[in-house]
Amino acid sequence: MMQTIKFRLHPTLLQEKQLREIFTIYNRTKRIGYKLLFQLKDTDFTKTEKRKIVQPRLMELCDNNPYINSILIHNETKLSQQRAWYEKRKKYLNQKFKTINEKIERILPKDKRDRRLKGLYSRLSSVQNRLNTLEIPPVVFGTKQLFRERICRKIDRAEFRIRRDASFCCVGKKQGVNLNLKVLPDMTLKVRRFSKEKGKKWLRIPFILNYKQEKWFRELLTAEKYTVEIVRRFIKGKLRYFAHISYETPEADITYGFGKGAIGLDFNYNFVTLSNVDKNGTFKSYCKISFRNLHTLRKHSKENYISYKLNKVINYCMNKNKGVVIEDLSLDSKFSYNKMLNRKLSDFRSTALDLLVRKCLRKGIDVRKVYPAYTSIIGKYKYSRSYNLSTHVLASYVIARRGLGFKEAIPAVYMRLLAQVGDMIEPRLKPSSPYYEWSRIHDLFKHSGITSFKTSEIARKALLVKDVLNSATSTQSDNLRAGLSACGKIEDYYKFWNFIKISNVL
Known about the structure:
Blueprint: E1 2-9, H1 13-39, H2 47-62, H3 67-107, H4 116-132, H5 144-151, H6 157-164, E2 167-170, E3 181-184, E4 188-192, E5 202-208, H7 213-222, E6 226-235, E7 238-248, E8 261-267, E9 271-278, E10 283-290, H8 299-320, E11 323-327, H9 339-363, E12 367-370, H10 375-387, H11 391-403, H12 412-421, H13 436-448, H14 457-469, H15 493-502
Parallel strand pairs: 8-11, 11-12
Antiparallel strand pairs: 1-5, 1-7, 2-6, 3-4, 4-5, 6-7, 8-9, 9-10
């Protein structure tokens, strides 16, 4: 497990001047290295052949300093991220193009003068243009926000350069071989300069520890491998320097496992829900932890706030003496929502998921990841009748049961309904999928206008759709108020669902 600690450095005035030189040369070489790799992106060279082309040119800029290895690793990672974005975006646009074409082919034979065709052709042309002009986007070093501030002249050139070239690092090797950044037992950081003059190759910068960091510092001295990143920031109008040191720590022994049950966790962009389930898969209790609008927080404030909230998840698992089951959420961009919601989900998942796993491993809490498909739908359609809870709580309940190895069989009442419907609605999944029947049920209810399982609307809409499902033989039931109060609200859910069963609607 990777552990990262942060120390504040206290350089002298002369050392600050020498550090600025390192920041400038390192980041200039990084930008040039990325440009050279970007020019080779469409060639057939292997990774090793590209390095042989780029590395000698960068060595000339850095006087053969070993920082080059860290620069190349950073640039290769950045370019691979840009390629991944390009592939996802291309896949999304192709799917969108295919969907619009299918809509046009479905409408055109019926009516060539349909007003929807004009809008569909316009969207089709727009998607085609975006596909034709799609390319790997350029990288803005120092963030786009900082670049805009410089263009709008909100900051001067000197401040822009300081904030753009804000860090340099050395990827860790074995402790005795790290030739650039070394942590010494006397609480000093030995920093390699780009100078070749005798006696001027190294800087020794002291740092301070608080009482919490002493334990981590002792672990760091015994670590076989660590990575150091030097960061500078403007704080209260002054430049401050920090060392971020990452090293591997052994995982704690599992203390809270799945022998007594599990805690299911369902992620949402502004809250999480926890369900306590015993070893037999029976629901015991639940908890909801709300988050504020994370999109309005800065990066470090966001991380600190999420860490504080996730501590409540850890405490809940420790109090129940059970492991936690989470969704194996893919961080690939699905582009399924609007731009703002996609950004919120991406920020939350990328920050919270890894942090939660690290916290659990540090506290000895066992973690299992399960496939997240159809958890909300199964919870809504199968357990709403029994528990009368929100869909998110029921989704976390299904996640916990899935983590314990239980399979969710579709109820017989839904099987009878699907037998009546037949092939009226085209299924979205293949028959071999384990969620094929659940997808048919969901599509049927969605097509029929049934969206809620907790209000009196289901009774009215279910009874209205009954004639559609069984138009040849069905008749409307006389007891339209079964399980409902005088004001139309559901008072007795068991009576209500029994009525739905008897009327052969669900």
